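Side project, low priority. Logging it here so it doesn't get lost.
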Amino acid sequence: MSKKRTGGTCMYCPHCKRNTVCKASNSADRRVGGWDGQQDIRWFRRGRTCLTCQRYFTSAEVHEELVRELFKHRVTTQNNEALRSQLRDLRSVLRDQIQNIDVILATDADD
């Protein structure tokens, strides 16, 4: 994020869906947060107003390592979902093949 002379910081606006200049709201919207039992997860919460669309949103500043960890877990989850889908497809194919084998074995038993 970079400071602009226009009275805000260039950052991603979730409403505009692009990087734009956003102004920090009053200090009442600012606070430090964390999760009970997760002492390493801390953030600084700040209210923002996009100077392009004039809409309010809340941003959270976190340590960059936490963002890397989130990305890693998201990729792992997506890979796991893709693998589950492939396994479901394989299970369906195998069921069909087992039925074919059962038919062949039943035919052999009749001979």
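Brief comment: Residues 1-62 form one domain.
Revisit when time allows.
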